[in-house]
Every structure is written in structure tokens, then in C-alpha cells.
Amino acid sequence: MPADSPTTTAREAGSPQSGPDPRRWLALAVIAVAQLMIVLDVSVVNIALPDAGADLGISAANIQWVVTAYTLTFGGLLLLGGRIADFIGRKRAFLVGLGGFALASALGGIAANQELLFAARALQGAFAALLAPAALSLLAVTFTDPRERARAFGVFGAISGGGAAIGLILGGVLTEYASWRWTLGINVPIAAVTAVLAVTLVTESRATGDRRFDIPGVLLSAAGLASLVYGFNKAAEEGVGWGDPVTLTLLAAAAVLLVGFVVRERSTSHPLLPLRVVLDRNRGGSYLVFLLVGAAMFAIFLFLTFYFQQTLGYTPLESGFAFLPFSGGIILGAGVVSQLLPRVGPRPLMVVGLLLAAVGMLWLTRIGVTSSYVTEVLPAEVVISLGLAAVFVPASSTALVGVSEQDSGVASAVLNTAQQVGGSLGLALLSTFYASSVTGYLAENPGESPAAAFVHGYHVAFVWGAGFLALALLLGAVLVSARKDDLPADAALAV
């Protein structure tokens, strides 16, 4: 079972402690820094994408792979990473994850071409998939008192929520005053100091019992998702398209591999993903909502980053500050929604939140070549962020409704996996629509400036993003039926 279930990891840790670890709050600080590094690594690089693309000659169709390579391997290997952390020891997995993440960051920082940068980002995602569940499990076994554990996970959740905002500002500072390469290189000293402190402050623990890995399941799921995303990406390339044999072959291979993964999980005695976890209507609905929200949310960061810098002429640092209201809205909104959830239940909040987010996404289609940030972009950011806050909290809770103790870890991990994989697929699909719409616009309007074509492409991407959110709204309203009394007492730990 993946190592991100506070309940199961605490019980599997081994012999009970005679008392609370006196260094537990220092250990929390160390673990929180590692989590912050994982969370901000998407947003800190987003701000640097225009500079990195120009420096390495990355095409508009391929630039999304700087993000997708990370999120795809992170999401695809997260369940396996949790099992590895359980079996080799959470502290050992934490240290290995830190070291590997630092090495991959260094490789990305010195990348001389796009292929090495994409490979380094994929390697970062793989080690993040080991580091993230190990960090969450270490918190669970370090804090045994329920009230202290709630406080610890509150800090952990705040770090996760605020990491995006910190990454946007940090990415802007590093890109503007140093180089885009330092958005990756900064991880090396942070990881090194964190690892040294972790050796002293963090206590080892590991699980017992079945130690078999579902390696065929890992290979089938990872290869299937990679083929699917790459197929979408090939369709965006000039001269390829959806009907090209390469595109069709990749999409067909993805279908065969993913169906094979489902067949494998149904037949094996130690599945990577027990199907009973996702076939429940409340849990399955939550995962689908997170998948679609992830697809739409990642598009906001990618296309608005290019709009700010290439259309409005913002510096990387100004772009970072332009995103702050979005991150702030999610953090503040989540606090309010957490208070409302026990009173009104999950479905009303999710429906209202998804409706707001879709409206905000459509609002972004009003932006133009010379739009004002204050009157056009800022209101949309605020509406989208408040809407998403009303989705994240209840969806995280319904992801654990009715789950058995033995499945609580994997149920929580699938939620994170759905968001990461959704982001990967969304970026690939929306980048395809963006690239083709820009090309079509220039062909139909030869007298128009490239800036107008780019803005048209952003509009197309935002419309599709709103479509993802509308589909999530429909699925959430139909599938999520849990009432406020059905929510698990420790649902907040799934966030």
C-alpha cells in the first residue's frame, strides 16, 4: 500500500514509541521544506518557460514538455513510490528522493538542448514520486498525538497551498536577475541542506507484510499514459496532425496498454491500484473531478505566463506577482470552505466551485493584445481561484468516503495521481489546440500580427479549459452523492 495514509503508516511503523519524539517539530520543518521544493517546482519553472524556450530553441508545440515530463512521471509513479517507501524505509526513501531530485535538477540546470532538459524534468518527477509519499508518511509516524498530527498536517497543507505562490515569485526573481537555469539549480543547495538535517532529525520506519511490487502494472500504466500524452503532442506538430500514422499508432498503443493495465489490476493478487478504490461512485467521481480540474488548472499557468511575458511585455518577476491573487484566492478560499464543508456537505460546494471556475475561465477569453491586467485578468483570476478552492477541499474529502483501512493510502494517493496525470494530458491536449489555432489564424488572416494570433490561441485554450471544468461539474453533480455525515473524520489529511 502506498505510504501516504496517516492511519495505516502509523500502525505499520513498528514498535510503539514510549513517548513523542522530542525533535518532532524540527523534523516537521525539514519535511516541510522537501514538500515545498516538490510543490513549487512546477510554478517556479513555469515563469521561466519563455526564456528557456528561446535559449534552447524549443518550439511552441514542445514547450509544454518542460512541465509535462515532470507531472507525467510524478503522477504515473506516485503509487509505486509509496510502496517503495513503505518497504525500504520512509527515511531512506526520503533521502534517496532528495538526492535524486537534486541530481536531476542539476542536470536540467546545465541542459544544452531540449532533449536533456525534458529528460531531467522526467527524472525529477520520478524522484518526486518517491519523495512525496515518504514525506507524508514520515509526518504520520512522527506525530502520534491526534491533535499534534492535525497541526502538523495543517502546516503541511499550508506549504502545499502556498508553494505555488512562492514558486511564481522565486521563478521571476531567478529568471530576471540570474538565469532560467537557476529555477532548477536552486534545488541543489536546498536538497543538500535538507538531507543533512534529515539524517539527524528524522526517525526511520518501514512497513511489514506483503512486499511484492506490481511491476507489470507500473510498466503498463506508465507506458500507456506516456503514449497518450505523446500522441496528443505529435498531433500538434506542424505537418503531422491527428490523422498522421504516427499519431494514430501512439493513440492506439495507449488504448491497448491502458486496457492491459485494467486487466492486470483485475487479475493480480497484489495490484498497484485495486479497482475497488476507483469504482465507488463517490471516490471515482472525485478522481475524475481532480483529473479534469488538473487539466484546466495547468493550462492557466502555462498560457497566462506566455500572455503576460510575450503579449503584455511583463518581466518574469512581474509575471510572478501577476499570479499572486490566484494563489492567494485558493489559500483564503480553502479556509472558508473548510468551515462550510461540515455544514452543507461536499456536492453543493463542488457544484458552485466548478461553476465559478468555468465562468472565470471563459472570462479570460476577453483578453486582447492591449488588455488591462486589473480590469480583464485580475477578476478572472480571483473568480477561478475561489471556485477551485471550493472544489479541492470537498473533493479531497469524498475521495476517502467509505474506503477501507487497507485501501486508505492508495485512495489518497490516487487523488494526487489524478491531478498530476490530468495536468499532463490537459497540457498536451490544450497545447495541440493552441498550436493548430495559431497556425490556422495566421493562414486565414495573413495581414494580422503574430500577437493577435497568439491571443486567439489563448482564447481557444481557455474555452477548452472551461469545457473541462463544465464536464467536471456534470460528473461531480451526478456521481458524488455523499452527505456531510458521510465524510471521514480525518478527511483533511487527504488534502
UniProtKB/TrEMBL annotation:
Gene3D superfamilies: MFS general substrate transporter like domains (1.20.1250.20), Multidrug resistance protein D (1.20.1720.10). It holds the Pfam family MFS_1. It comes from the Bacteria. Residues 27-484 form the Major facilitator superfamily (MFS) profile domain. Residues 1-20 are annotated as: Disordered. CDD domains: MFS_MMR_MDR_like. It is a multi-pass membrane protein. Residues 1-18 have a biased composition (Polar residues). Coiled coil: none annotated. This is MFS transporter. The chain crosses the membrane at residues 25-49, 61-81, 93-112, 118-141, 153-174, 180-203, 215-233, 245-263, 284-308, 320-337, 349-370, 382-403, 424-443, 455-480. Keywords: Cell membrane, Membrane, Transmembrane, Transmembrane helix, Transport. It is found in: Cell membrane.
